[in-house]
Amino acid sequence: MALFGLQDVADDLLHNDAEDDVCEIEPDNVETVGVFCALGTQWRVIAGMAGAVYQGLEYSAIPPVMEMLGVPVARRKGVFEGLRIMERAVLEYKAEESAKTKKG
User: Fold this and answer.
1) Model confidence pLDDT, tens digit, residues 7-19
2) What pLDDT does 101 receive?
3) What Pfam families does this protein's entry cite (predicted)?
4) Which residues does 98 contact at the CB level (< 8 Å), separation at least 6?
5) How is residue 3 annotated by DSSP?
């Protein structure tokens, strides 16, 4: 994850002891978060002169990951919808971080 700039985000989530920054996962979302974390190396990223540009998750990796993690077929549509929400949040975050870096 460090290669794609996600290590700082992961470190903040895993090692931040501030009570205000605790991220609780609702039981209904545990499966989706688990799949999202397992897809951590499956981001489409274009590296160029301006830096890394995140395009999104590699969708072809999602079905085999869900299968390997034992997500029941009946729940895969809901998990996929949750993944898209999380993906969009990461893309927005990375765009904001990129804009801050460009400003100085």
Assistant:
1) 555 555 555 555 5
2) 78
3) DUF1799
4) 51, 53
5) G
